[in-house]
Amino acid sequence: MSVPRLKRTGSKPNVGIVHLGPGAFFRAFNAVYTDDAIKQGDKDWGILAVSLRSPTAKDQLDPQDGAFTSVTLGAGQTEYRVINSISGVLVAPEDPEAVLSKMADPAVKIVSLTITEKGYCHEPATGELQLDHSDIAHDLANPEAPKSAIGFIVEALARRRAAAVAPFTVMPCDNIPSNGTLAKGMVLAFAKERESALAAWIEENCAFPSTMVDRITPATTPADVKSLEKAQGYHDPACVQHEPFRQWVIEDNFVNGERPQWEAGGAQFVADVDAHELMKLRCLNGTHSTLAYLGYLAGFETIAETVAEPAFAELCKRIWRDEIIPTVPKPEGEDLEAYCDALLERYQNPSIRHRTWQIAMDGSQKLPQRLLGTIADNIQAGREYTCLALAVAGWIRYVGGVDENGDRIEVKDPLADKLKAAIDGANTPAAKVQAVLSMKEVFDPSLSSNPDFVARVTEAYEGLLQNGALAVVKS
Ligand code: CS2
């Protein structure tokens, strides 16, 4: 017997937000908070979700009128909730004009982003816009049919300016420090290439709040869709599975102060997000990436399986205590030790199957803010960073593309080919490490020329080659 499809009941909220990047994280996070706000009476904050690449989200959500299921996986219990905040989905490459005209619509007040680190088209080590990035070059040549998020934002803002409409707020929700400042820098650099008066108008009138976002959300698998079918009796390929925890800290900086009451879902509005973001990036994402590379190499499929090995749990505790917490200024209202204790429990949640391979993706874009800044701070303060150096070595070992059994690793990274060529082109372990560390896209020269840093990463890399990740972490 075929299972019926999930279908929206009730009307769609009016669109007030265009969101770029309608993946699992957005659905488990922004869409849920916005649903909370709409339920409290914010009727004009429906979301138009825009995919910049694949039609998958549209294909999944359209037959359901935008409704989907958020599945909360607690350690012992599962909760299901249908989310109704998405009013429509567009696929940008199919019709860029439809996207631009919605973004230019005066009813749209916010453009939010979950486009991953690489979506900002910046150089990870320096934060500069990559003018030679193929999408950026394309969008400068074809401003009315853009491909990149930055190209869409600038063209839509140009149209609003021409029509004497106030700009929207640009709200990035990716794991990058000061993500509002970064997005602003990319938008202004791109706009300047087009017209300096446009850049000046954006600078004067637009707002780019920084945000800290947090909810562990593995990619949805066919097995997840099946188990939802079993539990709820309907088919919903757009469903998302996530942990109970969620935290959203937002800089309260919106054009004309217009925004939904995301407080309804527990969002915190603060004057300065940076300390919260630093805590989250270094404590959570820093250890996540460490566990992803070393855990994958040790043969573990998920984070929960990795930290079930006591040596990996101990590695996390040690790295937090000795190498991360000392570098993090305490954000208001947080207790760093308690935060990290809670993190380990979140990682241990056996219901969350977060693959080490998924987190290992795009390391070249993630390392600077997750690990390298922490290492640089420790070097400056004369502190330990042995475990962080091991994490960097784990990444270099991983992007070499061959695992400890000699099998191929499917490395997903914009710099994958370059990394592999650097590693394969060198003969000794030390030369391989040196070849990767000299990649300026990732490593600031002040770090990669530090002899102590080079020596520690090399030593750790040699240890991984000789003994394997599990033995190294256990030692
Ligand atoms: C993870 C994050 O995939 C990754 O790189 O570290 O997506 C992580 O799960 C989230 O930042 C948690 O909020």
From TrEMBL:
Gene3D superfamilies: N-(1-d-carboxylethyl)-l-norvaline Dehydrogenase, domain 2, NAD(P)-binding Rossmann-like Domain. Keywords: Oxidoreductase. Residues 272-464 form the Mannitol dehydrogenase C-terminal domain. SUPFAM superfamilies: 6-phosphogluconate dehydrogenase C-terminal domain-like (SSF48179), NAD(P)-binding Rossmann-fold domains (SSF51735). InterPro entries: 6-PGluconate_DH-like_C_sf, 6PGD_dom2, Mannitol_DH, Mannitol_DH/Oxidoreductase, Mannitol_DH_C, Mannitol_DH_N, NAD(P)-bd_dom_sf. One of its GO terms (molecular function) is oxidoreductase activity, acting on the CH-OH group of donors, NAD or NADP as acceptor. Residues 16-263 form the Mannitol dehydrogenase N-terminal domain. It holds the Pfam family Mannitol_dh. Signal peptide: none annotated. PANTHER family: MANNITOL DEHYDROGENASE 2-RELATED, MANNITOL DEHYDROGENASE DSF1-RELATED. This is Mannitol dehydrogenase family protein. It comes from Halocynthiibacter halioticoli. The lineage of its organism: Bacteria, Pseudomonadati, Pseudomonadota, Alphaproteobacteria, Rhodobacterales.
